[in-house]
Design a protein that fits this description.
Elements (H helix, E strand, L loop, with lengths): L5 E6 L2 E6 L1 E4 L6 E4 L5 E5 L4 E6 L4 E6 L12 E6 L6 E6 L4 E5 L8 E5 L6 E6 L6 E6 L3 E6 L5 E6 L5 E6 L6 E6 L3 E6 L8 E4 L5 E6 L6 E6 L3 E6 L6 E7 L4 E6 L6 E6 L6 E5 L8 E3 L6 E8 L2 E9 L3 E6 L14 E4 L5 E6 H6 L13 E4 L15 E6 L9 H9 L7 H14 L3 H14 L7 H7 L23 H4 L3 E2 L8 E2 L25 E2 L3 E2 L6 E2 L12 E2 L19 H7 L6 H7 L28 H13 L3 H11 L1 H4 L4 H17 L3 H10 L3 H4 L47 E3 L6 E3 H8 L17
Antiparallel strand pairs: 1-2, 3-30, 4-5, 5-6, 6-7, 8-9, 9-10, 10-11, 12-13, 13-14, 14-15, 16-17, 17-18, 18-19, 20-21, 21-22, 22-23, 24-25, 25-26, 26-27, 28-29, 29-30, 31-32, 32-34, 33-34, 35-40, 36-38, 37-39, 41-42
EC number: 2.3.2.27
Organism: Physeter macrocephalus (Sperm whale)
Pathway: Protein modification; protein ubiquitination
């Protein structure tokens, strides 16, 4: 783990020398701080409070500040800070709400100096004033910040942030009286220590708790903040309103942020959980870290640059009970491993391709593909050597445009807006979506919806028109529609050996096998097959010939021009005498029992209809249930969904997932579903189909997707009387004690849907306001404002 590179830095009269090294601690560390001369570091935690000397080759323990026989909660530290003007002065924040100062110059073994017990809950942060030796600031979980004068026993001022807890406080390096504080509600406040009654400025910096902040050592107005939303934001506080100038997206919640000395755009961050690494970012390139330290094996809890004017050494403490010194030269640089090639499709089918400039330059003379009519447009500019990333690998971008008129995506928008995904029976949803797809010219999608209806709905309810349409080549080229047959009237084994042949002239013989795999269908009277509770009126069979079709068994729609089927005697092989012959129709039975007819003739006669009006076959008993269960087709449906997704039609895949719900969800892994959902939602949002996108999120079968519309929905409400932010979750303002949501018409509390005018902030019940505006356009509260409600 240790590396042999060594750096020596001359800083005025002192010299910093060292290398990447680490030492093992007795317990996990919560915070670290470096003394003014950069020669010592203090490590504090729940069970550790020690000072280490930073030597050239190793850390050496100098002092253990946890003294006494009985352990005290005052020594359980959440934060520690070393004064930058007095090298003997330290301060710690205890988990029991006590702020403790330590004087290393005391001759006794116990270095504890003063105790401040004014906070009621855990103190999260302590901070010394950069130029005043006796001013100490603390922020606590109780929502208060207190300023202490170390020459007095009590605090000199108390600041109320009107929030649940204060996570960080930092004095400004350039402004003598200003300090910043961050809160769990996502707000950042700027205070003047001379005015504890109200903050100078407050703004919402993050969607969620803000865990840390740090003032820039050179730029007077730059403040960096990090929060649970995995972002580091840089704010310019010199303007009238706080302006976000940079934003860095990390992969985990940001626990600590520190500006890098002598590097205006560099800052270091560490995570509160999951990610154990320390990153150094260039805020001008916010997506790839400039450097990364990977020495720790658990969460990093504290980071500090060794000297305020040396950018080479970074110190860190971790929950893995190690203290490390990182040499910037030894850090890994992810930007060197970044892929310079990329490929992306645009919203309307345009293709963008990025590749190394060296590859593009060497192949500039290559002839384009003649079959490709899409001409590339190169967006390429000459890099300025003075730019910060000019020495890194750069890419040239090629964009291929689609032909005019071929990139229309109107079908996607129309389909998304017209599809029905919920609120109706499954059969109606499939029929409606098939109709929409058919009207848009997407016949394959329409046929897929029709087949899903057949598979998962009762066949007896399938309209004949839908099934006829689902047959790709029409019913005229299929078998003629026949009546029904009775398996009881057939000899055993006849179903697997009998063929129905055409007897009239036809160049092509179409035959159908009646075997054990054939689904048997009822006649026009919808007689139910034995052993089945649902009527069936379709047949899926194995067809010998050129076409495999879905044939309807409906005699009312039979084509008169088609030849009839007859059963010639020679089509059946001679067999032994059947002892137990099922009873047949009476007129056939009588003929078979005649003594003048042989056994073989009786068998043949029993199969020849007497007249053309007689129903040849009628089903009263199936070999098994008349239809296969939907689970039988689950694998086929899953393959169909994957086919559409691979073809790029995630709209179809997601729509079927939502409509079928639990019928198919169990057969597709959660990660695949989430990928389909995110892709479809991204497309919907690109086309500004916000309502459809929200409906898809709401109806999604993936838990990770269902919670998307529950994020970033914080609503900040101001009191309509005093115009101050509502700090509590109730109906009454804490400042003016007025109800914030009173209806201006009925003067009652609005506990449901509330509508208000954005000009005067007055409003009320939706129905009351609508009725009021029918007769007057002035505000019902009497303020004289001409209200407009959109």
């Amino acid at each position: 783990m240790e590396k042999m590179s060594r750096v020596t830095t001359a800083l005025g009269g002192s010299t910093l020398t060292g290398r990447t090294m680490h030492c093992h601690l007795d317990a996990p560390a919560n915070a670290i701080s470096v003394c003014r001369d950069a020669a010592q570091v203090v490590v504090a935690g729940r069970s550790i409070f020690k000072i280490y000397a930073i030597e050239e080759e190793q850390f050496v323990e100098k002092l253990n500040l946890r003294v006494g026989r009985k352990p005290s909660l005052n020594l359980s530290c959440a934060d520690v800070v070393w004064h930058q003007m007095d090298e003997n002065l330290l301060a710690t924040a205890a988990t029991n709400g006590v702020v403790v100062t330590w004087n290393l110059g005391r001759p006794s073994r116990n270095k504890q100096d003063q105790l401040f017990t004014e906070h009621k809950r855990t103190v999260n942060k302590v901070c010394f004033h950069p130029t005043e030796a006796h001013v100490l600031l603390s922020g606590s979980q109780d929502g208060f910040m207190k300023c202490f004068d170390l020459r007095r026993k009590d605090s000199v001022s108390t600041f109320s942030g009107q929030s649940e807890s204060v996570r960080d406080v930092q004095f400004s390096i350039r402004d003598y009286f200003t300090f910043a504080s961050t809160f769990e509600n996502g707000n950042v406040q700027l205070w003047d220590i001379r005015r504890p009654d109200r903050c100078e400025r407050m703004f919402t910096a993050h969607n969620g708790p803000v865990f840390c902040c740090d003032w820039h050592p050179e730029d007077r107005g730059w403040l960096a903040t990090g929060g649970r939303d995995k972002m580091v934001k840089v704010w310019d506080m010199t303007t009238h309103r706080a302006k976000e100038v940079h934003c860095v997206q990390t992969i985990a919640s940001v626990a600590r942020v520190k500006w890098r000395p002598e590097c205006r755009h560099h800052l270091a961050t560490c995570s509160m959980m999951v990610d154990h690494n320390i990153y150094v970012w260039d805020v001008r390139r916010p997506f790839v870290p400039a450097a990364m330290f990977e020495e720790h094996r658990d969460v990093t809890t504290g980071i500090a640059w060794r000297h305020p004017h040396d950018p080479s050494f970074l110190l860190s403490g971790s929950k893995d009970s190690t203290l490390c010194q990182h040499l910037f030269r030894d850090a890994s640089q992810p930007v060197e491993r970044a892929n310079p090639e990329g490929l992306c499709y645009g919203l309307f089918g345009d293709l963008a391709f990025a590749a190394k400039e060296s590859l593009v330059a060497t192949e500039s003379g290559r002839k384009p593909y003649t079959g490709d009519r899409r001409h590339p447009i190169f967006f390429k500019r000459k890099l300025d050597p003075a730019e910060p990333f000019s020495g890194l690998a750069s890419s040239a971008l090629s964009v291929f445009e689609m032909e005019p008129g071929s990139s229309s995506m109107s079908w996607f928008v129309d389909t998304a807006e017209r599809y029905a995904l919920a609120g109706r029976p499954l059969a109606e949803l499939c029929d409606h979506n098939a109709k929409v797809a058919r009207e848009l010219g997407r016949n394959q999608v329409a046929q897929t919806w029709t087949m899903l209806r057949i598979i998962y709905c009762s066949p007896g309810l399938v309209p004949t028109t839908n099934l006829n349409h689902s047959v790709g080549k029409g019913s005229s080229c299929g078998l003629p529609l026949i009546n029904s047959f009775n398996l009881k009237d057939m000899a055993p084994g006849l179903g697997s050996e009998t063929r129905l042949d055409r007897s009239k002239g036809d160049a092509r013989s179409d035959t159908v096998l009646l075997d054990s795999s054939t689904t048997l269908i009822t006649n026009e009277d919808n007689e139910e097959t034995e052993g089945s509770d649902v009527p069936a009126d379709y047949l899926l069979g194995d067809v010998e010939g050129e076409d495999d079709e879905l044939y309807l068994l409906d005699p009312e729609h039979a084509h008169s021009e088609e030849p009839e089927y007859v059963l010639p005697q020679e089509a059946f092989p001679l067999r032994h005498e059947i002892v137990d012959t099922p009873p047949g129709p009476e007129h056939l039975q009588d003929k078979a029992d005649s003594p003048h007819v042989s056994g073989n003739e009786a068998d043949a006669a029993s199969l020849v209809p007497v007249d053309s009006s007689f129903s040849l076959i009628s089903v009263s008993h199936a070999l098994y249930d008349s239809r296969l269960p939907p689970d039988f087709f689950s694998a086929l449906v899953c393959d169909m969904l994957r086919f559409y997704a691979e073809q790029g039609d995630v709209q179809m895949a997601v729509s079927v997932l939502i409509v079928l719900g639990e019928r198919v969800r169990k057969d597709i892994d959660e990660q695949t579903q989430e990928h389909w959902y995110t892709s479809y939602i991204d497309l919907l949002q690109r086309f500004c189909l916000w309502n459809v996108s929200n409906q898809v999120v709401k109806l999604s079968t993936s838990r990770a997707i269902s919670c998307l519309n529950q994020a970033s929905t914080t609503l900040h409400v101001n009191c309509s009387h005093c115009k101050r932010p509502m700090s509590s979750r109730g109906w009454v303002c804490d400042r003016c004690h007025h109800c914030a949501s009173m209806c201006a018409v009925c003067h009652h509390v609005v506990k449901g849907l509330f509508v208000w005018c954005q000009g005067c902030s007055h409003g009320g019940h939706l129905q009351h306001i609508m009725k009021w505006l029918e007769g007057s356009s002035h505000c019902p509260a009497g303020c004289g404002h001409l209200c407009e409600y959109s």
